[in-house]
């Protein structure tokens, strides 16, 4: 009898073992530095000071977005610890701050560090450390290079592609244009000019009558604008960050020079460029956009814009609703949260990058028809834009969605 009971017990144990083997084990949590059961640590650098301080509104807005998410319980139960450091738009300072974020703060990944020259100063180091370098605040083509920089992906549409869009428009609207250019003397300026000249094709050499450059350490661009007027240009292509966009627009107006002006998207902020220049001085300027303008009445009844306005009032009141970088930071924050949700409990740097290279999502404040889409061979999230014209109060859309190569 005892023998029978022993055999029955062994059979029951065997059956239990088989049933346990057939039951999937819960997925094991996996973490890289910067992630835990309670926290996800993310870092960025931005110019809270210096010549490009207008850009800091993006980091302030992203910080406010993460504050809202944390109030709602975080992402999969984890709070976001967003560490945002000032680099003054200075590459040596960026090197110092990025090293601190990776080696001392041990962030899981970096999101939207701002600037072309600043990111160039750290991209090799970040990739050697194999830290995801996501949604960076530049559209320089060098940052879409999965072969050499597999941990890096931009956010802003490529400058060269945007430059080509303006050139194509000028060829169709004013084929006899005499073009004067003011461009930042770095990779930002060079990329825009590369695409612009590519768009003009063999007409570039005759249509461009003068090109002037400036450095971000220059106090003003007044003399360059005077030289461009003297060249006889009737189109003014302004390839600048907001501070110098404002100076260029204002100086042209003050010297009674009224060409058709184009200002690149990264220098077009109403709060950072147009308002300081003066609304009357900026009337008629053409730029390009990929996100909704909160001042555009067509979005008044848009539920996503209404939600943004409520969020701005509660979480981000220090930034003007007319600031280009308020919806920008909100979109960045939204994309980061969706990415983290996709990662689930596998919060390794490898999985962060894997998910980031397979994005296909809408964002609340992107223009209709424009969405985030990446692949392992093309890490540009945003590839489309629309032309806009400043009517004296706000930017007005006037083109269809234009894809960039």
From TrEMBL:
Keywords assigned: Signal
Domain Leucine-binding protein stretches: 39-391
Signal sequence, renumbered to the chain: 1-27
Protein family (similarity comment): Belongs to the leucine-binding protein family.
Descriptive protein name: Branched-chain amino acid transport system substrate-binding protein
Lineage: Bacteria, Pseudomonadati, Pseudomonadota, Alphaproteobacteria, Hyphomicrobiales
């Amino acid at each position: 009898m005892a023998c029978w009971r022993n055999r029955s017990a062994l059979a029951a144990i065997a059956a239990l073992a088989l049933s346990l083997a057939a039951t999937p084990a819960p997925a094991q949590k996996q973490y890289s530095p910067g992630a835990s059961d309670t926290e996800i640590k993310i870092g960025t650098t931005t110019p809270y000071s210096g010549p490009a301080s207008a850009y800091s509104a993006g980091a302030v807005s992203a910080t406010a977005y993460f504050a809202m998410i944390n109030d709602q319980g975080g992402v999969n139960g984890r709070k976001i610890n967003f560490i945002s450091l000032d680099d003054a738009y200075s590459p040596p300072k960026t090197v110092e701050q990025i090293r601190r974020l990776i080696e001392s703060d041990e962030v899981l990944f970096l999101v939207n560090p701002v600037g072309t020259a600043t990111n160039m100063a750290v991209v090799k180091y970040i990739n050697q450390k194999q830290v995801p370098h996501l949604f960076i605040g530049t559209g320089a083509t060098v940052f879409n290079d999965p072969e050499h920089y597999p941990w890096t992906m931009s956010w802003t549409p490529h400058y060269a592609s945007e430059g080509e869009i303006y050139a194509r428009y000028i060829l169709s609207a004013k084929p006899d244009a005499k073009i004067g250019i003011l461009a930042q003397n770095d990779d930002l300026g060079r990329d825009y000019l590369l695409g612009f000249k590519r768009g003009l094709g063999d007409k570039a050499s005759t249509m461009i009558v003068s090109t002037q450059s400036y450095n971000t350490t220059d106090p003003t661009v007044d003399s360059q604008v005077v030289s461009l007027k003297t060249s006889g240009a009737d189109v003014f292509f302004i390839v600048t960050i907001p501070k110098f966009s404002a100076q260029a627009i204002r100086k042209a107006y003050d010297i009674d020079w009224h060409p058709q002006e184009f200002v690149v998207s990264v220098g077009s902020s109403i709060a950072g460029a147009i308002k300081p220049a003066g609304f009357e001085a900026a009337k008629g300027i053409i730029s390009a956009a990929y996100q909704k303008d909160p001042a555009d009445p067509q979005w008044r009844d848009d539920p996503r814009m209404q939600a943004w306005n409520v969020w701005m009032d509660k979480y981000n009141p220090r930034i003007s609703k007319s600031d280009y970088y308020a919806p920008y930071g909100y979109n960045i924050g939204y994309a980061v949260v969706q990415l983290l949700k996709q990662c689930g409990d596998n919060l390794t740097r490898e999985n962060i990058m894997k998910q980031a290279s397979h994005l296909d999502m809408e964002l609340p404040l992107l223009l209709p028809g424009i969405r985030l889409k990446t692949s392992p061979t093309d890490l540009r999230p945003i590839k489309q834009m629309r032309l806009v014209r400043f009517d004296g109060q706000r930017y007005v859309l006037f083109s269809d969605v234009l894809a960039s190569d």
